[in-house]
């Protein structure tokens, strides 16, 4: 356990997050208060409100706890990094991919236990142009999946909502020309999907690369070459487990710095499920950028 005592914490909750955990939240907050941590609660409707609250209190905080989905948590990455504040998360979203990357796979009870235990780890952050992200950034098919993943789909399909969105997105996807320059080396190709990961998980438990960890100082990229729907379906199990390197229809690399250019065709880029920027784009990793409370060494997360 880290010897630095946590005394004052700001708990930011997205009011649109899961509504069935009120009792667990109250019990968890009581657990933190019994451990000597004073909790200020904030229901925040916008990232701007959350960032403003942190900036106003930064000199008096030992910890920021963010409760919500990956998009809510990701929206705070830059502010927490710039303020040098410790982060803990309460996974209250549909996918909770950052929680998976941190080994928080058993819900709120485990998340509150991690805060009380005080086990700290340093993780990397990804950047695309001027935007921070924890998990994965996409262009192509991944963006179409996000667009199909409406609130109604999430409510109706739950944990299967990403699968539903994937099949709907396949019908809309078109190939594009791209130049990928990784640590100074260019690769020119056609693609239907590019994913660049800082974290291990994305899209509701898919693995960006079987060897990826959120503290390894690298970005992992894969690009899907144009292929039929049937080819995509047969490739799906490898994509799910992060073993796409074993298929010739997928281009893979790891690098600290990656530039992606789609020529005259400007393409949208989404990171952690939210639209953030467009091509051309510069991706880079910020090693050990943020200190976070997590239950076990990230090198053991699978």
TrEMBL record:
Keyword terms: ATP-binding, Kinase, Lipid biosynthesis, Lipid metabolism, Magnesium, Metal-binding, Nucleotide-binding, Phospholipid biosynthesis, Phospholipid metabolism, Transferase
Cofactor field: Mg(2+)
GO molecular function, one term: kinase activity
One GO-annotated biological process of the protein: phospholipid biosynthetic process
InterPro entries: ATP-NAD_kinase_N (IPR017438), Diacylglycerol/lipid_kinase (IPR005218), Diacylglycerol_kinase_cat_dom (IPR001206), Lipid_Phosphate_FormReg (IPR050187), NAD/diacylglycerol_kinase_sf (IPR016064), YegS/DAGK_C (IPR045540)
Keyword Magnesium: yes
GO annotations of cellular component type: plasma membrane
A Pfam family annotated for this UniProt entry: DAGK_cat
Positions of the DAGKc domain: 4-132
Keyword Aminoacyl-tRNA synthetase in record: no
Name of the protein in its database record: Lipid kinase
Provenance organism: Pseudohongiella nitratireducens
């Amino acid at each position: 356990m880290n010897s630095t005592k946590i005394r004052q914490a700001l708990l930011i909750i997205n009011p649109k997050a899961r509504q069935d955990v009120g009792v667990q939240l109250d019990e968890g907050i009581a657990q933190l208060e019994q451990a000597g941590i004073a909790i200020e609660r904030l229901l925040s409707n916008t990232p701007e409100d959350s960032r403003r609250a942190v900036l106003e209190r930064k000199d008096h905080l030992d910890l920021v706890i963010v409760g919500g989905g990956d998009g809510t948590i990701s929206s705070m990455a830059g502010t927490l990094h710039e303020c040098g504040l410790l982060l803990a998360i309460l996974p209250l979203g549909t996918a909770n991919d950052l929680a998976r990357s941190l080994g928080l796979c058993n819900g709120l009870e485990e998340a509150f236990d991690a805060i009380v235990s005080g086990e700290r780890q340093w993780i990397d952050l990804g950047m695309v142009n001027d935007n921070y992200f924890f998990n994965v950034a996409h262009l192509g098919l991944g963006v179409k999946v996000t667009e199909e993943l409406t609130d109604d789909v999430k409510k109706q399909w739950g944990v299967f909502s990403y699968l539903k969105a994937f099949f709907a997105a396949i019908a809309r996807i078109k190939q594009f020309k791209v130049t990928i320059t990784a640590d100074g080396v260019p690769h020119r190709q056609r693609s239907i999907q590019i994913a660049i990961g800082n974290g291990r998980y994305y899209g509701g438990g898919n693995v960006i690369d079987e060897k990826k960890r959120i503290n390894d100082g690298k970005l992992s990229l894969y690009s899907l070459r144009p292929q039929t729907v049937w080819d995509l379906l047969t490739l799906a199990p490898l994509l799910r487990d992060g073993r796409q390197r074993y298929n010739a229809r997928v281009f893979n690399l790891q690098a600290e710095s990656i530039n992606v250019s789609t020529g005259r065709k400007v393409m949208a880029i989404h990171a952690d499920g939210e639209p953030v920027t467009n091509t051309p784009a510069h991706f880079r990793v910020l090693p050990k950028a943020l200190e976070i409370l997590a239950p076990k060494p990230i090198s053991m997360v699978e």
